[in-house]
Amino acid sequence: xxxxxxxxxxxxxxxxxxxxxxxxxxxxxxxxxxxxxxxxxxxxxxxxxxxxxxxxxxxxxxxxxxxxxxxxxxxx
Length: 76
Known about the structure:
Elements: H1 6-26, H2 29-46, H3 51-63, E1 65-67, E2 73-75
Antiparallel strand pairs: 1-2
Helix pairs in contact: 1-2, 1-3, 2-3
InterPro entries: DUF5133 (IPR033457)
Protein name: DUF5133 domain-containing protein
């Protein structure tokens, strides 16, 4: 299985969390749709079927990543 780069996973997690906060505050249809899109992408990127599993898999992958000299994350 192809694995998403840690930076991509980090960005998807941040996007989802931001959208989740916005949806809780405003509850717009657009925010909900965007949140579903990001959740789907995160699931596909981690090979999972639900957002909770996707978060666990992404965080595990990020925990195993090491910072490169340029500040990006590399997997071990």
